[in-house]
Design a protein that fits this description.
Blueprint: H1 2-23, E1 34-37, E2 40-43, E3 49-51, E4 61-63, E5 76-78, E6 83-85, E7 100-102, E8 109-110, E9 124-126, E10 131-132, E11 148-150, E12 172-174, E13 186-188, E14 201-203, E15 208-211, E16 225-227, E17 232-236, E18 249-251, E19 256-258
Parallel strand pairs: 3-5, 4-6, 5-7, 7-9, 8-10, 9-11, 11-12, 12-14, 13-15, 14-16, 15-17, 16-18, 17-19
Antiparallel strand pairs: 1-2
């Protein structure tokens, strides 16, 4: 009897392999009509908004299921201020109709998936205050519709990708405080930062950034908030910084800038380490 059972199993395996060889590929994935997320059923066809920010008695826990990637009609996804853990699934890149994605203030870990660059309709991306690590993916530079990008308070390593300067519609950019989370984001401020002419707020404080401020900073004439304090930035400040006549908040303290300083910002330069200056 055991011998017959073994022969039957072998025959089934051989037939399966033969079918795959005959058709040249495995059967296509069956797309579900419904997805269950955190105990709630969502229709794949009709769900275009998912707003589950924390309520005192209803805080999400666990991971973000990869099956969220089936909700391809989503335009708005807000999971902020919960207790979500684990990685951001690569399937998030399937949600190409998203215009708003907010995962801030959770306990998410791991790298930002490169597939985030598929979300070319995003206007708002907030991943602030998590434990996301590794390098910021260069694919984030594909998100040309972004007006708001907040990656602050995460332990990133590596450097700020040059591709971020492709995001010419940005009004708000925050990549601050990797140090506070145990990260080591460093390197230079991207040389083409001046391309971001629509920025009103630029926060890169609390990292390990080095080198000078690029002269192109003076092209961001709508800037109202410039916060670069708590880095290892050095060299002389570009005179073009005085083009920023709309600045209301400017924090350049705790760096290594060398005098003489442009008169327009000399009041914002306390606590400079000038030991390496000539």
């Amino acid at each position: 009897m055991k011998h017959i059972t073994y022969l039957l199993l072998t025959l089934i395996i051989l037939l399966t392999i033969s079918c795959e060889d005959y058709y040249g590929e495995k059967p296509e994935e069956i797309i579900p009509t419904e997805v269950i997320l955190w105990g709630t059923v969502y229709s794949v066809e009709s769900t275009d908004s998912l707003n589950i920010s924390s309520l005192e008695e209803n805080e999400l826990t666990g991971t973000i299921p990869s099956t969220i990637g089936y909700l391809t009609n989503l335009r708005y996804l807000n999971l902020e201020d919960n207790e979500l853990t684990g990685v951001i699934p690569a399937s998030i890149g399937n949600l190409t109709n998203l215009t708003y994605l907010n995962l801030m203030d959770n306990k998410l870990t791991g790298a930002i998936p490169a597939s985030i660059g598929n979300l070319i309709n995003l206007n708002h991306l907030d991943l602030d205050h998590n434990y996301l690590s590794g390098s910021i993916p260069s694919s984030i530079g594909n998100l040309n519709s972004l007006t708001y990008l907040n990656l602050g308070d995460n332990p990133f390593t590596g450097s700020i990708p040059q591709e971020i300067c492709n995001l010419v519609n940005l009004n708000f950019l925050d990549i601050s405080d990797s140090y506070e989370r145990g990260g080591s984001l460093g390197g230079l401020i991207p040389t083409e930062i001046g391309n971001l002419i629509n920025l009103t707020s630029l926060r890169l404080d609390g990292n390990f950034l080095t080198g000078p401020i690029p002269p192109g900073i003076g092209d961001i004439i709508n800037l109202r908030e410039l916060i670069l304090m708590g880095n290892q930035l050095s060299g002389e400040l570009p005179q073009s910084i005085c083009n920023l006549t709309n600045l209301r908040y400017c924090f350049l303290q705790y760096n290594q800038f060398c005098p003489p300083y442009p008169s327009c910002v000399e009041d914002y330069l306390e606590y400079q380490d000038i030991s390496q200056c000539n």
